[in-house]
Amino acid sequence: MSNRIIPKEALSGLRKAELGDLGGPNPRTRLEPTRAEGSAAPASAALAKAHEEGYREGVEAGRREVEVLLHTERDALREVRNGLTQLMSEFEHSLANDVLSMSLELAKLIVRHSIKVKPDLVLSVVKEAVASLPGVDQQTTIHLHPSDAALLRKVAESDKTLHELPWRIVEDVRVERGGCRLETATTEVDATLETRWRRIIAALGRDDPWIDITT
């Protein structure tokens, strides 16, 4: 140990040492963690706020995506519904046409069968055709199927109205049984089954042909 004596004047810049200076950290050093802990609170609050904002933005983005998806699904369902409606409409229209076609074919069979069973039905057709003319004279001819022509001549023998008509009965195989065609110098009345058929189906908006099956 040195025995050097330090003058009093040299000690003027020194401070008195405390026990704390010898055994532990500087009190000012112990205050620094306290300030660091105080600064952590605002950082934690900012992080929580950022998390909350991110959560809200995520929820909003998800909601928008769901809305877009629902809109797309609604459009798809609407298209499916419209397609089904159109399909049902076409099916009903097709079914109605099929039913009408069957009905018309059945009507043809009924008419032809009725004429075969009751051939005198042609007489009402002849009388109706005659009534549509302004008059019957020597130039009037009536075209009938040979079988109907024979029937008309036979009936005219006992029917005074028909017997006195000055017409000429013409046998025409082109005329189907049950129909007739009247001709005068200025007028023609087509009362054949085919023509009458076309008038009926035209009113129904159809064009189904009447097939001539004269025998």
In brief, what are we looking at here?
62% of the residues lie in helices and 7% in strands. With 215 residues, the chain is of the alpha+beta class.
Major β-sheet profile: 4 strands, mixed
* Computed Rg: 58 Å
Cα distance, first to last residue?
Answer: 160 Å
Identify the strand order in the major beta sheet. 2-1-3-4
Mean pLDDT across every amino acid position: 78
Strand content: 5-15%
Shape estimate: rod-shaped
What does this protein look like?
By secondary structure, the chain is of the alpha+beta class. The protein has two domains: 22-117; 119-203, ATP synthase, E subunit, C-terminal (hypothetical protein PF0899 fold, 2-Layer Sandwich). Helix content is 62%, strand content 7%. It is built from six helices and four strands. It has helices spanning 19-23, 27-117, 121-131, 146-156, 160-163, 193-203, and strands at 141-144, 168-171, 180-183, 188-191. It has a four-stranded mixed beta sheet with strand order 2-1-3-4. It is rod-shaped and about 130 Å long. It starts with 18 loop residues before the first helix and ends in a 12-residue tail after the last helix.
